[in-house]
Amino acid sequence: METPAYQVQTDFFEGPLDLLLHLIRKxxxxxxxxxLSEITSEYLAYLENKKGINPSRExxxxxxxxxxxxxxxxxxxxxxxxxxxxxxxxxxxxTLIEYEKIQKIxxxxxxxxxxxxxxxRRLELxxxxxxxxxxxxxxxxxxxxxxxxxxxKKKENEQFLYVSSKNYSIAAKQVEISVLVKENxxxxxxxxxxxxxxxxxxLVSFFTLLEMIKRHLxxxxxxxxxxxxxxxxxEPSELSN
Amino acid sequence: xxxxxIALIEAILFVSKDPLEPGRIMDFLQITDMEEFEKILQxxxxxxxxxxxxxxxxxxxxxxxxxxVTKPELHDSLKDFFTIKQVTKLTLAxxxxxxxxAYRQPATLAEISxxxxxxxxxxxxxxxxxxxxxxxxxxxxxxxxxxxxxxQEFLIYFGLNDMSELPSLEELTELFEEKEQPSLFK
Lengths: 241, 186
Known about the structure:
The complex is a heterodimer. By secondary structure, chain A is mostly helical. In chain A, 54% of the residues lie in helices and 6% in strands. Chain A has nine helices and four strands; from the N terminus they run ααααβααβααββα. In chain A, a hairpin with a 6-residue loop joins strand 3 and strand 4 (229-233). Chain B is an alpha+beta fold. Classes of the chains: A mainly alpha, B alpha+beta.
């Protein structure tokens, strides 16, 4: 888990690159000439004392620590004559140079945000600035499956009055779902599955939905976390706005 | 240009919650000359709002649309009146992620995480929910990762009209170098 968006964190380094840049600046080193092995021990000391290390991102810091140690160990070994591939040190330094730019752009955006936040707009007071529109996020197959299993669980406890011998086919289901989506503009996933009579039909419906999503005929969207999942026709014009 | 036109534009903008496309207002007022319309906006924004200390509003163009906003010097008083303790701001993680998306779009989650050196899944999710970024498609590589780009909301949030108002990467490097020069001679 990362820091939630509303939390202001100043005591922590944003990540391993932030810490490395801090060490480079602290030691008044030039990023273009620095040898990373010079600051490796200092980096490790920070990690050991957990100074400024966000515990939830410790793994990211450790990954870079491993890279630093690898770089240092390589520097102790005799070098092969020609280096065809880019050395890990060069790679990490390039990332650092790029990251320095990102930090500066972030600072610029922060200044812009500050000036903009002084100007109030209509609706500013509506609890949350971002709540102005429905935020529809695309749903993963896992979330879809999760809901599917919860529905099946519910159905398992139900007593079916009679055994129907109807056979369901994916092709027929696809036609049925297409018609429903076309009529209403969308399809509420849980409501639809809840209405079905038998486990067999639910299974076939679910496979059909997965197939249709895979073939980009439908798109599964969710209004909010834990919100209902709706299926919309996948039209590029609607997606692009 | 008439006072009625300015009054009507002001009323329309007052009622509208989102920035309005200038073209829509022009059509409605049956103004075809862009220059004439700009002149009306100029008069309205400057003479009727900005230059008048007794007015609390400004005419602003953001995300390519027109909008009435409050004057910046009133910010603190508004905060007091509506008892708002903290104005929500984006975290550094969010700003870093936005920087990457803005300058490299479309960008994948893996690219963002690589550049930041930090797993950025949560931040990207957050920004998607805030509508500051959107999924524009899928990269044609194994796994078909989602490609992210900035949105109209992004422009409005940062007071931009279009992406070209952000300094280019070359301009940025120059800007930074200029700023940093003095420290080199220390």
